[in-house]
Amino acid sequence: MDKEWDKLYEEAMSVLNPHDVSNKMWVGSVASAVLTKKGNIYKGICIDTDGSIGMCAERNALSTMLTYGESPSPGKSIRAGNGKSPSRKCYFGN
User: Which one, of 47, 72, 68, lies nearest residue 57 by Cα?
Assistant: First the structure.
């Protein structure tokens, strides 16, 4: 991986922290980092529930980025989960 991918991977891994919030919600088993056109990095974790209100790590990172009025750099996102190999595949269509 190049330096940008290494940095995105490190950032995603820094928030990877699987744990239960309650007996119906668990978070952090997957993390994502997205690089913006301005060079900032936004991170997100997955939110899993036993209902339908969960959110994937990629959408979490994107929603935070959009909240701050930024745009993603095309193809510059990464996901990591449970110490497995990083993936450049992103499920939000980047």
Answer: 47
